[in-house]
Amino acid sequence: MGKANEQKIHARDVLSVFWSHIFRYKKRVFFMLFLIAFANAVDVLVPIFYKRFFDLLSGDLSAGTETVSHLLVATILIVAAIHGLEWVSWRTASLISTWFQPRLIADLEQTSLSYLHEHSYQFFSNNFAGSLVRKVHRLGRAFENFADQIEFAFTPLSVTLIGNLVVLFTRSHMLAGILFVWVILFLSLNLLYATWKLKYDFKSSDIDSQAGGVLADSITNAITVKTFTGRVFENGIFREVTERMRRAQMFTWRLGEYMDAFQSAFMFVIEFVIMYVAVQLWQKGILTIGDFALIQGLLLGIFFKIWDFGRSIRHLFTALAEADEMVQILRAPREIVDARHAKELQVQTGRIEFKNVTFSFNKTRRVLNKMNMVIKPKEKVALVGPSGAGKSTIIKLLFRFYDLEAGQIIIGNQDIARVTQESLRRNIALVPQEPILFHRSVMENIRYGRREATDEEVMEAARKAHAHEFIEELPQGYGTFVGERGVKLSGGERQRVAIARAILKNAPILVLDEATSSLDSESESLIQEALTELMRDKTTIVIAHRLSTIMKMDRIIVIQKGKVADSGTHEELLTKDEGIYKKLWEIQAGGFIQ
């Protein structure tokens, strides 16, 4: 029941999102709906001429000076002309629809992706990529379903019901009144049923999203599944969620069948009642033989359209249920937003200061506690410390993936909370521990660092990262696609592509998060030279567990329990007998390159 109540609120949100996109094409849309309404309006005239046709045959009309046969032919020609006009209107409306709907679907999906990318780091940590992909596509599919119901069900139904009732009213107030009451009951029962069924549509939609997420997660980790012989286990997880989806679908489909059975019986009843009353009126001379053809034509027209209403109202609510998940994401406030009147970050010196920074992921896990740290302009510093000390969190906060609980992070003389996120991240280059590449060419992946770069600049960056050699040996060289998440490349190759991307970006602030962790000793010695060049004249922050890689840093900052525990050069820290750094060094002793 809670879901149904939620939908009463969310339906307005869904319709608002749809309308905001429809409004761009409002003239074409209104013209299309006018043509559909016009086609159904002229279709209402057909039973009137069939009444005239059968009245002529029965001799109830006086032909005057014209022969009956000529009048019959003329009537048929009029009906044919009406159908021709109806055909032209429908075809034109359908052509507009085929132009309009794909554009709206594309617009909605583009809006969805754009807004998704504005959500925070935490948002993507908490949501399956596959589930988000499915929600984006389902929003487009939901609009297609919604538009189909408006264009081809509700608009024709509205015009047909009004037109047919008006025509019948001109022949018999009683018959029109009976049919009007039946129509109100029929539509009301369908609407109540669809509203009641909504909670089950939501449940089915939710399970469908879960199934998509499980499927995407399993396929994304296909290598892990093979390595740990998890095929049967993964099949079991997916079987469980698809079985729940099967039960939910079977239940909702059976409900639909029960409603169809009820509708059929309801239609049989009104047809019997109308025809029975019509016979009584015919006996009194109120109706003619042709009126029976008129009544049958009107009833069939209403039945055809109103039967679709029974399904269409359910399709409409299903569309709203399917669109709701993505619309709620579009309506959800972004967790990290630019401050009002945020300015562009101007990195003049590259000085970075953490001032009384406090941050927690949740109430029970405080990561940084009033941490203070200053990194001088163009200084090369390394962050070391035990796992969980907060080193990676410092980097995430520097990129403003999260907002602080308290304190400030200042670059130059600007608080990063007061500058635009785009300008902040544009001035920081990152080489992560586990680079994830796009399923695009090597050239495109490196160029992502500076998307306007020429091919020659991309290749030069690759040479500096010592990636050019292995790239040239790939099947299509720089045009080789690297596979999803870069799986066609080795860990070291992915790392060098990431380093080339950072070299190409050439940002004034550089962050290296275990940047050589995936490299063998020979590759690491080559890349250390590239990193030395990359770090030149840049403020650099390095996170490394292998302490041999940070010995030549200007300063090493030791992080423990969310605070700066110590700092100094490699030699200075080793002189402190009780220092954390010396203990870490002694644990790793024996494997260093002096």
Task: Decide which structural class fits the backbone.
Answer: alpha/beta
Q: Determine the number of helices (DSSP H or I, runs of at least 4 residues).
A: 19
Beta-strand percent range = 5-15%
Apparent shape: elongated
Report the mean per-residue pLDDT as an integer. 84
Main sheet specs: 6 strands, mixed
Can you offer a commentary on this structure?
With 594 residues, this protein is an alpha/beta fold. The protein has two domains: 2-331, ABC transporter type 1, transmembrane domain (ABC transporter transmembrane region fold, Up-down Bundle), CATH 1.20.1560.10; 343-427 and 511-516 and 540-594, P-loop containing nucleotide triphosphate hydrolases (Rossmann fold, 3-Layer(aba) Sandwich), CATH 3.40.50.300. Helix content is 64%, strand content 10%. The chain contains 19 helices and ten strands. It has helices at 2-22, 26-44, 46-58, 68-116, 121-125, 129-171, 173-220, 222-227, 231-283, 289-331, 391-398, 421-426, 442-447, 455-464, 468-472, 491-505, 521-535, 570-574, 580-588, and strands at 352-362, 365-375, 380-384, 406-411, 414-415, 428-431, 509-513, 539-543, 555-560, 563-568. The strands form two sheets. The chain has a six-stranded mixed sheet, with helices on both faces. The chain has a four-stranded antiparallel sheet with strand order 2-1-4-5, with helices on one face. Helix 3 runs antiparallel to helix 4 and helix 6 (129-171) runs antiparallel to helix 7. The longest helix is centred in the middle third of the chain and has 53 residues, at 231-283. The protein is elongated. The relative contact order is 0.08.
